Structure formats: C-alpha cells, structure tokens
Amino acid sequence: MEWLVRQTEIDRFRRRCGQFRGLAIFMVVSVGALMALIYLVFPALFALTGRGPREDILPRAIWASPAICYLFGVWSIGQAMGEIGKGRLIQPALSAALRRVGLALVAGGVASVFLVSNLLRLVGSAKGGYLHFDVPGMALGMIGGALFLLGRVVDQANAAQAELDEMI
C-alpha cells in the first residue's frame, strides 16, 4: 500500500513538472513576442513609415539583450522540468539545468552591468561611465555563477555515485 501512495506522489510530481514546462514555454513565447514587438517590430514599422527615428532600433535591441538571456534561463528550466515530467532521472536533468540557467543568468548580469551601457555609448545613444550600477543584474549574475558551480557539484556527485555503484 505504501508503494502505491509513493507512486501516486511521483506521478503527481511528474504531472506538475509537465505543467511547469508548459508555463515556462508560455512565458518565454509571450514575453519574447511582446519584447520583439516593443523593441524591434514597432520601432521598425515607425521608422519605415516615417513616424519615428531609424536610429532608435539598435539602442532598443541593445537595451533588451539581458532579458533575452534571462528568458533562455526560463526556457532551460522548462526543458528540465519537461524531461523530469517524462520520467528522466532528476540528477542528470538537474545538473544540466543548473549549468544552463547559471550561464544564462551570468550572461544576462554581465550584459546588464557592462555590455548594455558600453554598447549604447558605442552607438552614440548614451553617455556616461563604463559600468551600469544595476544591483538586480549584479545579483542575478552572482546567483547564476553559484548555480553553475552547483551544477558542477551535482555532476561530480553523479560520477562518484556511479563509481560507488560499480564497486558494489
């Protein structure tokens, strides 16, 4: 009887992982589409019709670049949840997801703090320093680095577990 209860909990967990994957896909597609409309499509249409400056498109795309990294992180989490929902083992899916999400957060944080301000200066859209004091970007970058390192730790734990299993 206890096995049946445990199996029901596992099935419920996998179903929720699948639902989370759907939510992640919805978020990435909807937010990505809105960002594309706001930062690329509408400015391009306004520039083509003569209602807006053509020079406005590149700075808007540069300004949105960290969000693209963060959306990739959400997509990676959704992909891992989908794999777990389909029955893949948690540890391999978790380690890959931690590394991908970590890299996405690091890239978004670095872009937010260093690249956006300097690229905007390069294209002549902004003036100022070489560093944008973006505390959320800095925090996300640090959290991303920690997640990447945790993914490596999970990989090493998997390797150690496999080695121990071979000994037994």
Q: Can you walk through the features of this model?
A:
The chain is built from 4 helices and no strands. It has 168 residues and is mainly alpha-helical. Helix content is 85%, strand content 0%. It is elongated. Helix 1 (2-49) runs antiparallel to helix 2 (57-85), helix 2 (57-85) runs antiparallel to helix 3 and helix 3 packs antiparallel against helix 4. The model has no long low-confidence stretch (mean pLDDT 88). The protein starts with a helix and ends with a helix. The chain has one domain.
Summarize it.
By secondary structure, the protein is an all-alpha fold. The protein is built from four helices and no strands.
Overview features:
mainly alpha
**Spatial shape:** elongated
Beta-strand portion reads: under 5%
Helix percent band: over 70%
Q: What class, by secondary structure content?
A: mainly alpha
Summarize the biggest pleated sheet. Answer: none
Q: Write down the secondary-structure element order.
A: HHHH
- The multimeric state of the shown protein is single chain
Mean pLDDT: 88
Please tell me how large the radius of gyration is: 21 Å
Provide a count of the helices.
Answer: 4
Straight-line distance between termini: 30 Å
Give a count of the beta strands, DSSP E runs of length 2 or more: 0
List low-confidence stretches.
none
Number of domains: 1
Summarize the SSE layout with pairings:
Layout lengths: L1 H48 L7 H29 L4 H33 L12 H33 L1
Helix pairs in contact: 1-2, 2-3, 3-4
